[in-house]
Design a protein that fits this description.
The chain has four helices and 18 strands. The radius of gyration is 21 Å and the shape is globular.
Length: 384
């Protein structure tokens, strides 16, 4: 699943917990060690895979966060790895993350996300739960609106839950089902904001049920170093399962490829598309930008029913727990296939720094550039 929008963690990481009783005991029983030494020891042990020894291996960290959308904030993150069968060293470990952040703009967010992988990778359960309150800029709907309209401010609140279950049918191919609950409310509207959303309602509840098909040979979901990931989702948001005026469909496709090109170097390719049918409310339009794709753009400046994004990224291990990336890509929003215009394709490129918080779980610091825009962001896990 999309891996989706974690703006949490940054620069100077400070220990705020140990995530296991042994860790708390060791910190409390080491009065001779200074704070800096204990922090170094704590994070020095965090990259060791201990999933065979413990039911769950957690690491907690806190620090400043930043994105073009939320600006400067303070975040807390808990990241854990575990195995349902600790004797199974072949199946990749499952992962779970808890997060919370608050920013100077009044933005705050709480949530959890994770992937539970069953023995021999025959079944997989993915989930994402979040609550967000976000003062944000609004430009309207469509490419021309995002390019020419002056922004107006609104307050957007969102409650969301998405659960996906997959069953392997043959080799690395999976079939599954999903449910997506999405409630969003816009507040503090003025006349300009009402015009920008074409005088639609200010709050919508949508419930989606769908099917998905995947082909997945990735070695580790949060940070793949090799493999292929192909996914197709078809979701129906029925009018009777919410307060939308019409039923609408959403199609999401993802094509990712990862290959090690030299020692410590991984080349990653990503193609992503989101297609929504007529009747999609303004709250659920595809939004270009964010922490995963088209980094550096304000998320939602360009929004429409359909979105297509492609990117290629080179990831290179540099020294000890540090790595670096460079990427380039492009994206386009459009109301229907017949309205797609190559001239409206937006460019994207940038570079970033990585720091390994846990075994193959990275804190990432990216600076992205686009057409008449740029932005810095801090997040957890790779963008794709």
């Amino acid at each position: 699943m999309r891996c989706r929008r974690w703006l949490l963690v940054a620069g100077l990481l400070l220990v705020v917990g140990a995530g296991r009783a042994e860790g708390l005991d060791s910190l409390s029983q080491s009065p001779r060690k200074g704070l800096v030494r204990r922090v170094v020891d704590y994070f020095g042990q965090s990259t060791v895979d201990r999933t065979a020894e413990r039911a769950i291996d957690f690491t907690f960290a806190g620090g400043p966060s930043y994105s073009k959308t939320t600006e400067l904030g303070l975040g807390l993150l808990g990241s854990g790895l575990y195995r349902l069968d600790r004797q199974d060293s072949v199946t990749p470990p499952s992962d779970i993350s808890f997060y919370g952040t608050i920013s100077t703009t009044g933005f705050y967010s709480l949530g959890a996300t994770g992937n539970t992988i069953f023995r021999d990778r025959n079944r997989r359960l993915s989930y994402e739960l979040s609550f967000t309150s976000s003062p944000r800029d609004l430009w309207g709907i469509g490419y021309q609106a995002g390019r020419t309209n002056p922004p107006t401010k609104i307050l957007e609140q969102r409650y969301a839950l998405e659960v996906q279950f997959r069953q392997r049918i043959v080799a690395d191919a999976y079939l599954g089902a999903l449910i997506d609950l999405d409630y969003r409310r816009g507040r503090d509207f003025d006349a300009t904001a009402d015009a920008y959303i074409h005088h639609q309602r200010r709050e919508y509840l949508a419930t989606g049920v769908g099917l998905l098909a995947e082909y997945d040979t990735r070695d580790f979901i949060p940070n793949p170093s090799r493999g292929v990931y192909l996914a197709l989702q078809q979701i129906l948001y029925a009018r009777g399962l919410g307060n939308c005026s019409d039923s609408f469909w959403r199609t999401i496709f993802t094509a990712d490829y990862y290959r090690q090109v030299w020692r410590g170097g991984v080349l990653a390719f990503d193609l992503y598309g989101e297609l929504n049918t007529k009747g999609t409310p303004w709250t659920m339009l595809a939004r270009l930008g964010g922490s995963a794709r088209m980094r550096g753009y304000y998320e939602g400046q360009y929004a429409d029913r359909n979105l297509v994004v492609g990117q290629v990224e080179l990831r290179q291990h540099l020294w000890r727990r540090f790595g670096g990336v460079v990427w380039g890509g492009a994206g386009n929003v459009f109301p229907r296939m017949s309205s797609f215009r190559w001239a409206e394709t937006l460019p994207n490129y940038g570079l970033g720094l990585r720091w390994e918080l846990k075994k193959r779980v990275n804190v990432r610091m990216d600076y992205g550039f686009g057409r008449a825009t740029s932005g810095f962001l801090l997040s957890i896990n790779e963008a794709f």
